[in-house]
Amino acid sequence: MKLTRFTDYSLRVLIYLGMQGDERVTIREISQAYDVSRNHLMKVVSNLARKGYVETRRGPGGGLALARPANQINLADVVSDMEEDLGLVECFCPTNKCVMTPVCNLRSVLQQALQAYIKCLRRHTLEDLLQPAPELEDILGIKHKIA
To answer: Is 57 helix (H, G, I), strand (E, B) or coil?
Structure first.
């Protein structure tokens, strides 16, 4: 199974925000950290905000932050919310026209694989992806303010 780039970027945005703690960041910062188009990230962030993963604020003191703690953001939920279609093959779709469907065992095997995939994601939260913190901060260019 391959996730869409949209879901990939959604997960990356959440990781970046999770690494920030309480600090707010801009789409520009995330765009620069990942070398990804700002316009594309605007759509990703808009969807993440609409789904309740990200809080956005305009103006002074504005920016982006996680809408809830990283340990409350389940990876299976994120993937399910961001992916338009988890149908691995045609026979998973309502418009299925595959002639083999009545006798084919592929659907059952792939359905089991998809369930195992989702079950694995269900065991993890965003917090699990925030390690190793020092290395991630270095790679992403995150500099926390000294208190």
So the answer is: strand
